[in-house]
Amino acid sequence: MPARADILARAADLRGGFEALGAQPVETPVLQPADTLLDLYGEDIRGRAYVTSDALRGEQMLRPDFTVPVVQMHMAHGAEPARYTYAGEVFRRQEQDPDRANEYVQVGYEVFDRTDPAAADAEVFALIADALSGLGLRAATGDIGILLAAVQGLQTAEPRKAALMRHIWRPRRFRALLERYSGRAPVPPARAALLARETPEAPDVPQIGKRGADEVAARIAALRADAAAPPISEGDMAALETLLSVRETMPFALERLRDVAVDLPQITPALDRLEARIEALGERGVDVDGLDFEASYGRTSMEYYDGFVFGFYAESRPDLPPIATGGRYDALTRQLGAGAEIPAVGGVLRPDLMLELEARGG
Amino acid sequence: MTLKLGVPSKGRLMEKTFQWFARRGVTLSRAGSEREYAGQVEGIDGLALVLLSAGEIPRELAAGRIHLGVTGTDLVHEKLPRWEQQVEEIAPLGFGQADLIVAVPACWSDVDTLDDLDAAAAAFRARHGHRLRIATKYHRLVRDYMTAHGVADYTLVDSQGATEGTVANETAEAIADITSTGETLRANHLKVLSDGPVLRSQATLWRSRVAPCEGSDRGVLRALLDRIG
Question: Ranges for the ATP phosphoribosyltransferase catalytic domain (chain B) (predicted)?
């Protein structure tokens, strides 16, 4: 474990480097209102963040990351375009693994700029890659936007698409929903029995609780409509599966995804964005021919990313979490912006892990 | 030093634990009056009985303050992260069986599985402006279970007792609680989801992996394990 003074010195260096490139340094409070984070992440955040409270302000969380407060700050009074950098502690509750740090320093770089998203993606990735050069890390990249576009364009009922979109970041449930909507998984017996009954409501049972009989009836109507809808075609299913399994270096991945787009033309605009990003990365001097791209990358634990995603890993130290992660989070700015939105992309580094790797000779 | 055995300090769990050990030739009893929480042991030397609340036994085992303890699987799994590294299961005792289950109002005829619960939660949140509330005291177990099954748009609300009543009182829409027969659930017009329980629990004898056990204590432990094995 590197000394705390060394970690803070390295964090200051990294932040200074981003400042020298024109980023504005920002600070955010350590205590964040719990409501905002709970709305964004749901109950899972309670397993990942420390919650505290007082009688005046109610529930507060020790900041689990900087992205949310930085976005809020920018949406409230930021000028456009903007580049920010920060360094400071984040706190992560650890309920499973005592070896994972529950408090560590992050250094971040965030870009709010609507002029050229591909260039902004490449800028963030290249700056983080530069900061990590010499550590011999493997970079992984992905693009959640391609899967989002594929689902939005499926030939199926709107409520099904909404359900799939809601579970993009929960691969297991997403898969279960697809199996059912395509008719591959049988209708659960209890549901079949329910829909076969003439009066599916339960009139002989007392009505209790806040969820009313009309809500039960509405869901049964929705289940009926769903049962009557045709299944997602085998062709679409096969194309989706091919899409999700793509794992190649960037140019080959693009080529394979272009093949998928023959069956799923709705992903073409997202692929055009990927192509522009590859070009922008190349212009920044990134070796795109050697850069991995996984279509499923970033679907777990990165819930607010909805476009380009990346992470840097020490292959000699599989026990370590990623040394850096980042991505595009346009949807987060929409959710926090109350009507306003701005394309945004950013990444964070872990100076503590960088020092640890350097101490062991990389 | 003596080898310390922690046993629930009252009720059926204590009596049944005493009976279980008695059948194996180890007589456990309370010292002095009914109100005193000191215990005595006959039939084996060097073993001390510590009477504790069942809920505190996992923590005492993990801290190494007792060598052995009797408590439910539910409490060990809820209270001790990576419980396998802190305690070892010696023997299930065959009583205190209870399942940690998720239950919803019986009038929700459209909800039978977690899949239904997730869909109902999405619609509920859109309609009422807050997430579907699940009352429980088993926060970690239930949250891990919901995460593993990809349920979203719910929130856990703490309920340390009379959990079955929270739905009728409209402080929660569903519950996750321990049940042995389901009587209380039925009486409160609730039904159990069909996916199977979050956890099957029963009274179990645990050994602490961290309590120091040297010299004569090792011999006592071996003698006791022989007796009950």
Answer: 54-213
